[in-house]
Model the fold of this input.
Amino acid sequence: MTHPTVHVPAAAPSRPGSEWWRTAVIYQIYPRSFADASGDGIGDLRGITDRLAHLQELGIDAIWLSPFYRSPQRDAGYDVSDYCDVDPVFGTLADMDRMLGDAHARGIRVIVDLVPNHSSDQHVWFQEALTAEPGSPERARYLFRDGRGVDGDEPPNNWESVFGGPAWTRVTEPDGTPGQWYLHLFDASQPDFDWANPEVQEEFRRILRCWLDRGVDGFRVDVAHGLVKTDGLPDHLPPLDADSMGGGSGDAPYWGQDGVHEIFRDWNRVLAEYDGDRALCAEAWLPTVDQTALWVRPDEMHQAFNFSYLMTPWDAAQLREVITESLRAYPAVGAPSTWVLSNHDVIRHATRLAMTTAVPQGYGIGPASPDQPDPVVGLRRARAATTLMLALPGSAYLYQGEELGLPEVIDLPDEARQDPTWFRTGGTRYGRDGCRVPIPWQADAPGYGFGPSERSWLPQPTSWARLSRSAQEHDPDSTLWLYRTLLALRRNASLGSGTLTWLDGYPADVIAFRTDEITVIANLGSEPVALPTATVLVSSGPVDGGMLPPDTAVWLSVR
Ligand code: GLC
Done:
């Protein structure tokens, strides 16, 4: 395949309604695991630059880079110690500029991760807070509180960390006495900022500008629903079945508070100072589509991951409902839906869609989990699910490796696991390492060509040669070719800005709709379904004799 060099126009804002992010397919790069140029077993920015041609060939519009900032890497970079610099493990600022320039020259936009809920405990502000007095301006950038109980030796409230265990850690004061406690919704190495403090607000305007000035096209905003906590930090224990990120719990005093919207409006104004339709995308785990839609009102964020869609099981009625709800709720506030099936925090959809039990976000799956999904069924469903998703109007995010059909790595050895969730729960929750295993590029190279050596920060399964990019490159039935075909057809038919009409007359476990001149039919049932007479444009699996097998989806031309 040859591709002309395209230059991304950095011009005045587009006509409202035609901005790039409304329809873009955005590919998530998790830098540690994408491609390693240095040979230390951890992916880096040069590795990404070296592989941009593959992404151009795949046919995506933009990439989202998970954090590459200075960080002790206690939560794989989501613990930032310097927001405007690159961690040496990933390279240098010059490497970032080169990557950004090369991506733009290929017509690929780049959004970066912004981590505003917390910093690393090694951030200079937190180090200053530790040596400062209780009540000092240095402590006021974070959420330090006195403890409860006789000597203040009980945490200020009963909140639990998303990664397990208490959400508070006690410090030792500079004079050696046991001191105040600080809040960390995640690991103890990730202290939460106090977003009521104007100094924190100003610092994040500066951080946004330092990357906007370098030319990034926008930000994916980490834990966007967690920045504001209810005044007084009241006790709260989520119901036992609640999702620790807030997806199902509704009333936690630290998720989805109204005050967050003022922060996003402020950032929206900062981005509007720049040319080229820069965009904000919220990571916000909220109970309903309608609540998530509030995040993307015209003067706030531009996108918010549709996690209600991601969490929907492989069930036609439930999927139809969440799609219908999404196509009502987001356009009602003038926003696109932002479809997504996988990312670095959830069980890869090539595994998840074959599971028979629902596992809360972030808990993961491992060798002792009761549910051991069938990988063949999982891959078949994943291919069908992506075929369905990429026809839907709006934007879509892909997660690196899903175009190879990678499954979750379930049998990682305990000693290899690195997710703080694993350590903070004494190994009772496996966590997210299984979706973060480095990408196999080359079937016959050491480490499957992830880097120049066979080093890999998480071990790759011995069975991954057949899933490597090189093994799929010339196989028209491969998952890689399915993604390429879907993306090319989606672009040609402008499906991202299409309109969806449900089609009647199919069995209940079939999803059928028309979008512009394409009919999409997905069979989620257990019996083959007769297809109408039409040209098959693309199919997620073999279609024989006009019958659509179970767990298969097609796009038909109805021209
Ligand atoms: C988000 C990130 C996740 C990280 C957490 C804390 O959910 O996606 O990977 O661990 O925030 O920053």
